[in-house]
Amino acid sequence: MKNAVTMKKKIIKLAILVSLALAFAIPFVVFMVRAPVLIVSDQSFIMFYGTPRIRRQSIQSSLSFFRQFKTVAIADDAGDDILQYAIAEVSQRPYCVLFPLRYARGARIYREQNPQIPVILLEGRFTETANRISAAINNNPDDYFIYKTDIESDFHIMGLTAAILDGEKNGRILVYLESHIQAKARESISRALNEAEKPLRTTYYTSYSQTQRISNLSSVILAGVGAEYFDRNAGIPIICQTWVDPALLPVEVVLVFDDSPWNQAAEAVRMAAAGIKTGVIPSNCVILPGKDIDNETLQKIKNLCKIKKMKRRDLTNIEQTNIIKSKELLRS
Q: Is 26 exposed, middle or buried (0-12, 13-18, 19+ CB in 10 A)?
C-alpha cells in the first residue's frame, strides 16, 4: 500500500514536470516555426553598422512580435538574381520582407515572383514629395508598403537639443544638411528654436567645403554631409544623423539619430500589418555622454527623446502637449 502511494506521488510529480516542460517548449516551438520578418542588407553595411547592434535590435523586435526578425546578408556587388536566391535561402515563406531604397529594383522582382508576400520599402531621408523609387517599381506603389524617415520629427528634436546645449551662451548653431532635405529640415529646426524661445543664429551648409570660420559655436548638426568636421576635434557638442556604431564616433557627439532598417523594422511591420501603405517613421535616438556635458543637460535631452517615443496614435492631440513640455524642460 505504501509503495502504491509513493508511486502515485512520483507519477503526479512527473506529470507536473512534463506539463511545465510543454508549457515552455510549445511557445518556443511556435516562435521558431512562425514565418519570419526578413531585412535585406549588404555585408559592408553590416560591418559598418555593427553585428552586435543588429543582433540586439533584432532580438527586441522578435520578442515584441513573437516572430523572428532575420537579416538577409548579401555581397555588395550581388545582382538581383543573387538577392532573390539569398532571400529564399533564409525563408521560402517569410511574413514580409524589408528592402532599403537601394534594393528597390530587387524588391520589384521579388514582389512579382511572390505576390502573396508583403514587401516593405524603406526610402530613408527624403521629403514627402520625393518619389525616389517610382521608376524602379514600375510606378505601381499600391503593390508595396513605402515608408520614409520622419524628417520633421527628427530635426525638430535636433533643434530643441541644440537649444538645450546652448544654455545661456546665445551662441551659433552650425548645420550641415543634404541638399534634398534642406528646406524641410530648416523649417523643423526653426520651429523648434521658436518653441524654445531661443532665436539662435543658425548657419546652414550642404557640404563641408563651404565651411567658413565661425566663432561662438554652441553646437553642430551633421545630417548626411559634413563628416569631415569630426576631424576638427573642436570640442563643440555634435548632433548627428548616422548609422555608424556610436562607439566609433568622436567624444564630442551627444546625440545620434539612427534610421537604419533594423531600427525602423518593428514600426514598419506594425504599420504594414495595420494596412497603412505609406507613412513616416522617426529615427531612434542614441544619447551619448558627450564631452564636458553636465548631467542636468543630458537629462533634459533624455526627457526630450522620451517625448519623441510617445505612441503616435493621435498626433494632433499630443502636438501641443509636446511643445509645452519642451518649453518647460528648456526653462528648468
A: exposed
